[in-house]
Every structure is written in structure tokens, then in C-alpha cells.
Amino acid sequence: MDWTPYDAALFDLDGVLTPTADVHMLAWAAMFTEFFDQHGVTPPYSDEDYFLHVDGRPRYDGVRAVLVSRGVALPEGLATDEPGVETVCGLGNAKNAMFNRILADEGVAPYPGSVRLVDELRARGTGVAVVSSSRNARGVLEAARIADRFAVVVDGAVARAEGLAGKPHPETFRRAAELLGATVARSVVIEDAVSGVAAGRAGGFGLVVGVDRGAGEQVLRDAGADVVVTDLAELVPS
Questions:
Q1: Does the active-site annotation cover 22?
Q2: Does 14 qualify as catalytic in the annotation?
């Protein structure tokens, strides 16, 4: 790929740089399956729910979206709710606790093709940033031993502190481009989630790349991806 027209690459984390999307999927499935079973909610939670309602969204937004899809209403609760309390925040915190347990037990290694692309872009002077809805982003980057490659990380914690709307709104990507000193028109969004691709398209970025880790090529294109790849090594500068 010719990167000459672009000054910045804005990478999602889970599913783009690291295979932690798989860990998130496991944690969401375990949390919702337990809750649905306890309350007789049907149909059962499935991977389709993850891609439709959860993937790429801030955690509590994902909880709300899944509950709405089943006609279930819960109190919002507080961010300090203990994991498992039957509120939106309590369920989200239960999922987060499970994610952290799995990550601590199993660790994480980045995708080799993704690291290769990041290193090639840094070598040519292209700015790189991580844009993630997760509040665990910095911990994942450290666990994967790639934190030193990214001076700019706009994650769920930053979004909350700065009042930035989460994906599918484009504000977090715009903030990352701004911090890199790049214009939106000369920045590339790289995402595996439908909500993230939609954010890139809504923000008017110069290029939106979809990484197909299970969402489906056509689904990503329909959401607004200009290019769809299965491995970021395909984007290494030629």
C-alpha cells in the first residue's frame, strides 16, 4: 500500500493489534450466558450478539445494547457497582473482571503482521496511535510488550476524562489525529469492529481499513470500509 497521502495511522487495539478480541468475546459470553440462564432470557447469547451489539463499543454501551435486544431493562447503576450487581454497570464490571482474569492467566501476544506494519510506519515517519473503547488498553499494550511503540493512546479512560463520545461516533479518532498533529483527511482508521469502521466513515477520514477477524468482509464494507484485509501485513508500505 502507498502511504504517501497519509500522515497518521489510527489503530484499534482488540482484534487489530492483539487477539484480545477473542478474550473479550469469551468474557462477554460467560457473563451474559450466566445472567440469561438465571433469568430465563431468550434467545441465548451468541457470537452474533457480540458482533452486532458489543464489538468496539464502550463497555456499558455494549451491555445496554444486548439487554435492549432482549427487551430487558435494568437500572443504570454506578461505575463503582460490584461485579455481578444487577445493573448495567454491575454486569459490565463483571465482564471486565472476567476479562482481566483470563488475560492474567493466559497473557497476550500481538499479531506479527500488525507489529510489522506499525514498525514500518514508524520508520517512515508516519504517526501511529491506538484508539480503543477499552479502559484496559494500556494494560493490554503492556502485556503484549508493544506499549513503547505508541506515544498516543486514546482509550476508554481518556474518552471519559475528556467527555469524548465512544464509537460509532468519530470523536476518539479525531482526538488521536489531533494529538499526532495530523488532519482527518490525511489519517487512516484501522478497525475490525463494525462500530469502529462506522466511526471512521462518519468522521470523514482519508481511508478506512476494515480488518476481517470474523465480522465479514461485506459487513465491514457496508459499514464504510474502503479496504478490507485479513492481516495488516497486507498494508506494509510497498
A1: no
A2: yes
